[in-house]
Structures are given as structure tokens and as C-alpha cells.
Amino acid sequence: MNREWNDFAETDALGRDRELAEALHHIDPASQDPRYWLKFRAWVMNGAALELARRRMIAQMTVGDVVHSWARALVPTALLAAVLAGILLWRFGPVPPMTVEELLVSEIQGETIPVLASPAAVIFASERF
Amino acid sequence: MSLNTFEAPTDGELVSRARAGDELAFCQLVERYQRPAYAVALSVTGRHEDAQDAAQESFLVALARLEECRSPERFGGWLMTIVRNRSKNLVRRESLRATDEVPPATRSRVPTPDRIAETRELRGLLKKALMDLPEVQRQIVLLHDLEGWKHREIADRLDLPCGTVRSHLHFARKALKHALQSVPGVPEMMRAAR
Q1: Which phi and psi (to 5°) does residue A16 adopt?
Q2: Does B79 touch chain A (CB under 8 A)?
Q3: Which of B34, B64, B145 sits opposite A24 (nearest CB)?
Q4: According to the model, what pLDDT value does residue A1 have?
Q5: Residue B137, domain member (yes or no)
Q6: If phi over 0 gives left and psi between -120 and 50 gives alpha, with beta otherwise, what is residue A83?
Q7: Number of A:B CB contacts under 8 A?
Q8: Nearest beta carbon to residue A21 from set B146, B181, B194
């Protein structure tokens, strides 16, 4: 059995097993290409450019920009609503105002009292008593 | 001027700046976590190309979902979760791809005198030995013995108790050494590759 290989309990300042760390170093892509991590970062940053630009744009928006962006949607909607209201008013004409008397009796059943006071009701009562 | 000015910015500061589209801040986050992200991805996929893709894509996903990182100071742990999930998805998608970087025949092959070939073979053997470990042990041994992360950092970022990390590391090292020493010629290759 190889003694050198077995005795690797030695650790570095970071607590890494020296020999194992050395062995694992071989699976680090930078062991083959020293510029690997630079390229890796460049690829990620290239892919992130659009999203970062979008975030910068949002972060730089002022209150005025936000109001303006709202106004762009709000003004046409309000105009459309006003035009629709105008058309409806023009087609059906103005509703005639109601008088106070009309308002007071508008939803009351007019026959309630006459029914109670009708001759049939009186007859019914007299038959009973 | 305060000495703090010269200290490296915390993850929380970098995340906050990256959320506002600060390119330099995001670049610093990538620089800080690119190697651990690759190590975690490699521990799941076992293939360099897949690990590279998963790690790179994870940074882009993390940037797009930066608002979902509830504790910016723990960006590393959050990123590692993304890396693990993306790597697992990649493996699932490519599960039908049966090619293996390390053919079993390499185990019994006598190392060639060519230094490059030896290094390549050693790399293959290491990957094979690593892939025989449970996933969590692979992650821990790579983050500790390759990336130099401390037990506490690994525990924090993988959301594991510190004692568990130590225990996994112990068993991973033991299993790796055992696996490698049982391969004829590996100790000689190790010395030659130095």
C-alpha cells in the first residue's frame, strides 16, 4: 500500500485536505484554461446585459415619468368614456325631472287603502261580527 | 475615511445594487460565486459541459428573479438552490443521453507517459470517484476541498447543520481516498501531475 497516498490528513490554512485539494484541482476548468473563469464571467455578463439595462431604466424613472406613462393610458380611456356618454345622452334624450308628489308615490301600491275600504271588505267584516 | 470603505461589499449591498441594474455589482456577485456554482452543478451533473451550462444559466435566472431573494445577505445559499435545481432539471432532461465521459475501461488502463493524457485520465477518475459519492457529499467536498469554503459557510449556504457538514466531509474524503487508492496507478499519476 502506498504510504504517501494514505497519509493525507495534512490540511492547509483553510482546513482543506492538501492532497485531496491538489487532486480536485484537476477538475477545475481553469487547470486547463487559465482564462476560463474570465470567459465564464464574460458569457454571463453578456447574457445579463439586457436584464441589467431594463433594471437601470426602471430605477432611473422619475415620478414625472411614472405619471406620464399613466397619463398615456388614462387620457384615451377618459376620452372614450366621454364620447360613449355623449352618444347615450344624444340617443335617449334628457330624462324629465320628477316632482315631489311623483317621487312620494312613485313606488307605493296605490290600491292598498281603497281595497281595505271597499264594500266587499265591509261586507266580510259585518258577516263575521 | 472609514476603514469600512476598503472592505469588500457584502452580498446584501451587491444584490441591492444589482437590483437597480448595477453591472459592476452583478459582475462582483458572479465573480464571487462562479466557482462554487460550478462545483455544485458539477456535483449534480457530473459533466463539465452540463455543469457549465447550469451554472451560467443559474446566474441569469437569479438576476431575473432577484426580487424573490428575501434575504439578500444570504444570496449565496439562494443561488446554490437555483444551481442545484437547474442542474437536476438538466440531468432529468438529458437522462436518455447515456454517454459517459469516463469509460469504465479507463480504470484498468495503465497510465500513459504523456503528461496531458495522464492529467485527463486523472480528471476522469476523480470525476468517477466523485460521482460514486452521495450528492450532498460531492457538494461539500468540492466546496470545501476545492473552493476552500469553511464548514460554517457551507452549512449556511446549503442550509445544513455545521456538524452534518463536518460529518459528510469526513465520509466523503474517506470514500474518495478509498476509491482513488484502489485504482492502480493513481498515486503515481497524482505525483506525476503535480
Answers
A1: -80, 145
A2: no
A3: B145
A4: 41
A5: yes
A6: alpha
A7: 115
A8: B146
CB distance B123–A26 less than 8 Å? yes
The partner residue sitting opposite B34, judged by closest CB among A5, A22, A40, is A40
Per the confidence metrics, is the pTM higher than 0.80? no
Q: How far apart are the first and last CA of chain B?
A: 45
Q: Residue window 69-108, chain A: list those with CB within 8 Å of chain B.
A: none
Nearest CA to CA, how far is B180 from chain A (Å)?
A: 9
pLDDT at B6: 66
CA atoms of B153 and B130, how far apart (whole Å):
21
pLDDT digits (tens, 9 = 90+) for B80-119: 999 999 999 988 887 755 554 444 443 334 444 455 566 6
- Residue ending a domain, among B43, B62, B97, is B97
- Confidence band (pLDDT; 50, 70, 90) for A92? confident
| Domain hosting residue B121, numbered range | 107-194
- B192 and B111 fall within a common domain: yes
Q: Evaluate whether residue B2 is within a structural domain.
A: no
Tell me the torsion sign for CA atoms B30, B156, A11, A24.
negative
